[in-house]
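Slide 14.
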Amino acid sequence: MKTILLTALLLMALGWQYGHAQLSPMDENSPVGWASIGKACTGSNNQNPVVVTTEQELRNALQACKGGKASKTIYISGNIEVKEKLRYDKVANCTIYGLPGSSLYNRDHNDNADNAGFFYCQGWENCIFRNLTLLGAGAYDISACDNIQLVESKNIWIDHCDIQDGVDGNLDAKTRSDNMTISWCKFSYLIAPWPRPGESDDHRCSSLWGSSDKIGDDEGYLNATFVNCWWYHGCGQRCPRIRFGKVHIANCLWENGTTDDPAQYCIGIGHSSKMYIENGDFSHTVLKSGEEDMRGHNKYYLQSDKKYHFTITGCIGEGDAVEIGRGYTGTVYNPYDDANYHCKVYPADMVYDVLTNPDNGAGATLDEELLTTRGNANYGQTTAIETATAADGAQVVGIRYYNMNGVRLATPQKGVNIMEFEMSDGTTQTNKLYRSER
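Slide 15: predicted structure.
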């Protein structure tokens, strides 16, 4: 606890040197779209914060959330090497923040699937990932070794993450995962792909939704919103590729291919997919020519014998279209037919400038103040800490105060104070308190 407290003190001291962060005017700072349908995605509600600086501390924090036992707010600090996949099943009510400048990295190239990738999320519910930087080892085509893989997970919000060089993929979802929103994320492959004997020589495949045409149980699931996402250099395909789900792709940017390294395609329109592609910018990618099963100058890929339908509207670099595949019956998907669906969309000619803005565009561009204030109406005030409780009902039984130099105080002083709560279940929590006068 002493190590975590000292780390928190340092981070908070640094954070208070900066002014209030400014989000893009286009950033709604909330899980819009599918993650807000039915049941709101709230994550931990900023309860039970813990700062982690090592792989083991991260594992301990995730273990505490396993099985939905408790809410947890996990702040990742510094650059942490992850040597083994982070697999914790049935995590619920959890928020994982990356503090500015932090990352999780795994650059070890090997054939062991247990040692590749980061978050394997089996049965996760009501969870948030924000401002994470995930640095993989590079494409090597080992199944299920993604930087984030969602399996039977629902009500998930992934926001402002920088996701690079996934071994199998950067971000995949399968097996009845549902109600997911991916917003303001940047995807890239910056390491040359590793050829794998008997498998793909170039598996720079960013996001696969649905692992097989044959899994009929996925029908009605895999519903997702991709909004303000940027597929950057090296993403050769699957940006994203969709099976089964109803998927809204809005205000996204494809810069995945270059003259020296052209991409195979942008969006994959797969079996039984229902897609609405709105106000995106395809004009900055360079794509291979003459590829089989490609349409629209390779902007999208489909297999003509599959069931699917899609709408493209308001995009740059691709004309409006509505197409219904062989054997599909039913209405053409439009997310706005649901009165409860909300997603702010702006003209496509603004997308490039908005998403590539280094201060508040796509990627891990949030600063600490934005991360710590979301959902906290009492930020900067003396809070009613006497009524604080942990998610499992534990009560505050003791409070200690420290100044920003780590010196213990008898009472809070003017300025920034650190509070350490002693809980009735034996755990401790920390928070910061600003007092304008003694």
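Speaker note: The longest helix spans residues 2-15.
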